[in-house]
Amino acid sequence: MDFQRFPLVDRTASLLLHGYAWLPDRMRRAAGPVVRARVFGRHAVALRGPEAVRFFYDERHVVRHKAVPEPVLSTLFGHGAIHTLDGEIHRVRKAMFLSLLTPPARVADLAENVTAAWDEAVDSWAAESDDVVLFDEAAKVLTAGVCRWAGVPLETSRVEAVSRDLVALVDGFATPGPRHWRARKARGRCEAWLASLIDDVRAETAAVPGDSVLAVVAQHRDADGRLLDARTAAVELLNIIRPTVAVAWFVAFAGHAQHRWPECRKRLQADDTAFAAAFVHEVRRFYPFAPFTGGRAATDLSWHGEHIPEGGLVLLDLYGQNHDAQLWGDPYTFRPDRFLAHPVERDELIPQGGGDPTTGHRCPGEAITLALLEALSLRLARLDYKVPDQDLTIPLGRVPTRPRSGFRITAAVRRDHADAPPGPTG
Hints:
Blueprint: H1 12-18, H2 22-29, E1 35-39, E2 42-47, H3 50-56, E3 62-63, H4 70-77, H5 87-101, H6 104-125, E4 132-133, H7 134-150, H8 159-171, H9 178-202, H10 213-219, H11 230-245, H12 247-260, H13 262-269, H14 273-286, E5 292-297, E6 301-303, E7 306-308, E8 313-317, H15 318-321, H16 325-328, H17 338-341, H18 366-381, E9 383-386, E10 408-414
Parallel strand pairs: 2-8
Antiparallel strand pairs: 1-2, 3-5, 4-10, 5-8, 6-7, 9-10
Helix pairs in contact: 4-9, 6-7, 6-18, 7-8, 7-11, 7-12, 8-9, 8-11, 9-10, 9-11, 10-11, 12-13, 12-18, 14-18
């Protein structure tokens, strides 16, 4: 491999310091269509734009095997996860995820379980004398709902602890220090718990419906015809449960948006389904979620005349693309109506990656994210609550980020739509 054109100074420290802004800033200063850097001790080329999305998700160009850094595998994805696979083994494993996460009936069933958990939680908030942190409560609601939907037994007394572990897996993947080590410990606990449950299902000592998520994962056979080992099956079960709980980040952002732009809240209260869908898309576009995604060049590549050597790290700038003025015109304005005037294009809006979810590495649970975020955004809009003074800044140097306070609310009461107030006070 010829890396002569790559910088020799490693920029990982700068990436960790500047977070979401690091790659877009470098893109703005770049003289050509790519940014070259050394990060995580590896040579990297960063791309952006719908054409780059299609290039990146073509397995003839970019593969995932040996591309995900060990710290990310040991926290966010898990060793042996689908995110590390390519070719036939990826397609067979992906088919399992698609069968569980994309059928409308499955999505609707999950939304029903989560909204039921939300309604139960809201009834308990009314009795709380202190503030409620929306991010934390959403994580608990999503944990209870997704486990119930997946057929994973979880006692009510354990929901809070499990939700903390699931949040930790996401919260600690992109940072050194205590958050990262909490995430590693949380993964160990989660994998041990679910691997034991997988063993019980296979031994028929745990009775679960045969079409449940738990049973399907436990009985999945890979391209070689073999069952996954219990630990890898637990990893993949976590890769269904953990991203669902990660919707808590978007719920906190939805609360932030409804508070900052109360006219959006009023329109959500009016049962405008088209606007509700547009609001969800704009939350996912406007607020920071994943900064970028990466893979490894499958062979020597050329991108708009720029050489990408075989084995080089290829980064796709997700946050930068979602805030690209050439695509969005006014990218730093929160304007859901943009999605009423212009339909969502698959390779333009990429908060959870791009490409075709049925054939590539795009998140197969995107439909679930949309359904849950829309349902919970509507329920939030129909609550009567106050927003006390708090720090609502969203630091771009923190990955993943959220409002510093988690978005605290108080005096939350569920009301009929007709009685809903025009907006929160505080």
